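Purpose: get a first structural picture of the assembly so the mutagenesis plan has something to point at.
Setup: two entries, given in the order below. No constraints added.
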Amino acid sequence: MAEPVQIETGRLVLRDWRGDADWDEFFRVTNTPAVMEWLGGVLDYEGQARTRGRVESCHANNGFCFWAVERKADGALLGFCGLKRADAPGCSVPGAMEVGWRLREDAWGQGYAKEAAIAALDAAFARFGAEEVVAFTVDGNTMSWGLMIALGMQRRADLDYRDERFEPPWRDHIVYAIDRARWEARRG
Amino acid sequence: MADIIAETGRLVLRTIEDGDAALQNRLLNTPAVMARLGGVKELHEIEARHARARALYAQEGFSFLFMVEKASGQMVGHCGLKRVDNPLAKNPGDFEIGWLVREDRWRMGYAEEAVRAVLDWAFTRHDAPHVVALTSQPNVASWRLMEKLGMERRPDLDFDDPDWPEDDRLTILYSLSRAQWEAAR
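Result (structure tokens, whole complex):
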């Protein structure tokens, strides 16, 4: 049984999932055309079940996952952010520690994704022993790789790969990475 | 009464008029739009910018403008010209182009459509020798459009602006010369 995770930041809590109610709320607020535009599009019921299943098996296998992100001020579920082991078909770095996020649209632009991603990266290096963390996105998702740049991650074009489960523009994945030394230097 | 500066396929670019500050505040001054532009502004800051822009237009004949969507008549963004006036900039007085687009009109190509018209205006009506644009590395959508327009990265003009949020305080510049603009057409 993994140790429970409850990571607090200034405005947010990253925490383990609490079953159906959390997941229903997560899909209610994030399974929208704007949020899913670069993430393969709005999910049908089976797609939602696959997403939940991947997060839950990651949690069971690793003790970390893409955690639920809750806003402290009002308890609202803003989305998820956290860590997994890279496992997409065709991925150039299978098993690598991966950071990812997905936040509801009305929470964009307020630094929440960055705040959550910093907490996830801190956990990756300090708690889960990562030596390097990668992040994946697609070319069109400029907000996502803008955040990767803001986090100090560096473009690794040598690691780009195709995920053949998807059609363009979702197929061709671009990769960013940051190693422990660079992260620790940035965090001071 | 606003002046119409340009008309494109889907947009009208017009000068600022009374009441625009409140409209801008409601329609354009949202967290996602302003995320990499220094954050949401107070209404009085928008009003001050409008006053400066209108004075610039009276003196020099250019300023920032509003994008109006022809199909709906709604304000969907702003774009336009000013002179580089950041006291930390290395190229004060150069023509500077800038833009933003309302969140529910992103990814429709409005910025490119408007900016091409503004560049035309700069080079043909205002004899700009070159036009620069300022952004930050994390503002990927912004500098990608600069690159698409044929603008050239100018690291020699970059500067650090401590008044901006940490992620975006390193201001990076792109430039387009008249010759480059004419060649690209």
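The interface with chain A takes residues 30-36, 107, 137-141, 144, 167 of chain B (CB under 8 Å).
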